[in-house]
């Protein structure tokens, strides 16, 4: 394993050096791992309770915004929103605890900050 | 701990319990959660009660919230006195109506100012709200469901701003408030109109409902 690593370093330094004609690599960032992980974007959700909303709005249009005539639809919409909010809360609580066997990017970043990769001589 | 801007209670502290019914339940009839809560109270410290919180039968959390929203420069005494004057004037108007009405209609007239206040607030609460969402460089007004606290806040805010701005300047605040509350109780008036306008805008923009991602 140690021999494999040293062979790679020799190859990389050969590609960077100007002694053997033009350098093959011209990196603008250091060729080493950074001490942080990219923040994974949360998966795109869709709007909740759209059907209930559209049903309620159709009822409103029919009865010209007479709210007394639409109590059933309004109650259904409110029930739906309450459910959606409870679901969202449960999902938020669950996400901060575990990411399906993987570490959350924020947690990974805190760990890496504590034990960083040293690629510069200090 | 006084409520200074940057101070915060340690999350360890528990909320105070003002209602007497909780303490009157005999020990045998407590549920498991209540027993656990009682045991926790013996070990954990409790936050100081805010001055607006009472255990009296006359205290109403909605009225307290309304008083706080009307308060300016921390003058709670003035805000509270305005509200009491409002309730008094509402009661006077309703009792006058009651005595002038024929016997058949007497039962339909509501005299309790607290029920009128609660019903008027319910009538003013919007069911659906609008949120500004940016998509493709433009801002769209997207219809979205609202939480109960947000709806209550909007209803109270509309009432207060409407009374402050759109009335004759020489009428007292309690007079303006009582007129607006009685109108809202009957589902008339400017606040109800504003609620309907909000609903109509939401209905007009229902095509943009898909721009929401929650």
Major sheet of chain B = 2 strands, antiparallel
The profile of the biggest β sheet of chain A is: none
Order of helices and strands of chain B: HHHHHEEHHH
Please bin the fraction of helical residues of chain A.
40-55%
**Coarse shape of chain B:** globular
As for the number of domains of chain B, it is 2
Task: Give the count of helical stretches of chain B.
Answer: 8
Question: Could you characterize the architecture of this molecule?
Answer:
The complex is a heterodimer of chains A (122) and B (214). With 122 residues, chain A is an all-alpha fold. Helices cover 53% and strands 0% of the residues of chain A. Chain A contains four helices and no strands. Chain A has helices spanning 2-16, 50-62, 71-97, 105-114. The model of chain A has no long low-confidence stretch (mean pLDDT 84). Chain B has eight helices and two strands. Chain B has helices spanning 20-24, 32-43, 61-70, 76-100, 113-124, 148-165, 173-185, 190-204, and strands at 128-135, 138-145. Chain B has a two-stranded antiparallel sheet with strand order 1-2. By secondary structure, chain B is mainly alpha-helical. The two termini of chain B are 38 Å apart. Chain B has two domains: 7-59, no CATH class; 60-211, Ribosomal Protein S7, CATH 1.10.455.10. The interface between A and B is medium-sized, with 23 and 17 residues.
Task: Give short descriptive properties of this protein.
heterodimer; A: 122 residues; mainly alpha; B: 214 residues; Ribosomal Protein S7; two-stranded antiparallel sheet; 8 helices; 2 strands; 7% strand; globular; ribonucleoprotein (chain B)
In brief:
The complex is a heterodimer of chains A (122) and B (214). Chain A has 122 residues and is mainly α.
